[in-house]
Amino acid sequence: MGQPEKVFLLQSPVEPVPTGAKPEGSMELLSTPHSIEVNNITCDSFRISWTMENSDLERVTHYFIDLNKKENKNSNKFKHRDVPTKLVAKAVPLPMTVRGHWFLSPRTEYSVAVQTAVKQSDGEYLVSGWSETVEFCTGDYAKEHLAQLQEKAEQIAGRMLRFSVFYRNHHKEYFQHARTHCGNMLQPYLKDNSGSHGSPTSGMLHGVFFSCNTEFNTGQPPQDSPYGRWRFQIPAQRLFNPSTNLYFADFYCMYTAYHYAILVLAPKGSLGDRFCRDRLPLLDIACNKFLTCSVEDGELVFRHAQDLILEVIYTEPVDLSLGTLGEISGHQLMSLSTADAKKDPSCKTCNISVGR
User: Fold this and answer.
1) How do residues 130-174 score in pLDDT, each as one tens digit?
2) Closest Cα to residue 212, out of 195, 230, 236, 229?
3) In a 3-state reduction of DSSP, which class is residue 320?
């Protein structure tokens, strides 16, 4: 297997072949590549190979790769507006790895075609025809990428503050529906696409979102909320205890100074726990920078990071009878809603050097 070859952008990415390329000339024409195969796909790389005539193997000096992003309604509109992208690489033994977070996004559909070329003594190229087009989709962040996000989040998490309840804000009708049609239970629902584009939880993990942040001066949950004027509060130990696993899921911002961390609470052995185990970094519940549960003087004590807005996903149904429901007195701050919020890809605090 050949070593991965570094791939470069051409000067004119929208041109079908480099300037000076000529499909015909005094040299024997190149065969058209065929039988394209794409595999080993990650969030910001893929491996590609194809078949060409034996007579071309020693002649070809360069490969040209035509990479096109397939637009759809869920596309990340904040990045990669320059695609289609034409890439050039020196010829190496196939398969070769194409890697680049500046032109590949996670969870994104692409089409790819290839062309081979011989660079001639006058600097011009003899090129083959374009191969057939193959489609593929890039992957989610892997654990090592999430570990990088976790490290960045830890740097700004701040000191830990005590809290005693998790809370969920919504409209009155939401809670009435839970009581009337869901057996008095808050049912898990599919996480939306808010946060990092490569988060493995988006559109995959079911859970109930809770908050736990408190006001510095009162130690109590804030009276304002972007999600509704009715609040369900539940003692922290009902959701978070030594029988619960805690996972780090995401770190992002929305073009503001506020930064958000998404954490997952999953009862050990549950379906949600099994989902997270293979995809998310596991945190020590008693010792981490975000959310802790520890025993002090024989009692469970809970703390949250002061300088992050924590979004906590609990993966199981929650019984409303285990907490209290009431109306808050503050305002509904819609500007702070994170529903389907897109991450700022230019923020140096919460982005890593892979697809956003």
Assistant:
1) 999 999 999 999 999 999 999 999 999 999 999 999 999 999 999
2) 236
3) helix
Q: What is the pLDDT of residues 85-142, one digit of tens each?
A: 788 999 999 999 998 867 788 999 999 999 999 999 998 999 999 999 999 999 999 9
3-state helix, strand, coil in the chain (%, to 5): 15, 35, 50
Contact 184, 319 (CB under 8 A): yes
Q: Which residues pair with 134 in a beta bridge?
A: 112
Assess contact for 41 and 140: CB atoms under 8 A: no
Q: What are the angstrom distances between the C-alpha of 342 and each of 107, 226, 250?
A: 14, 16, 13
Residue 263: alpha-carbon gap to chain centroid:
14
**pLDDT score of 8 more than 50:** no
> What are 90's strand-pairing partners?
62
Q: How many residues does the chain have?
A: 356
The one-letter code for the residue type at 197 is H
- Residue for token pair 């830990």: 160
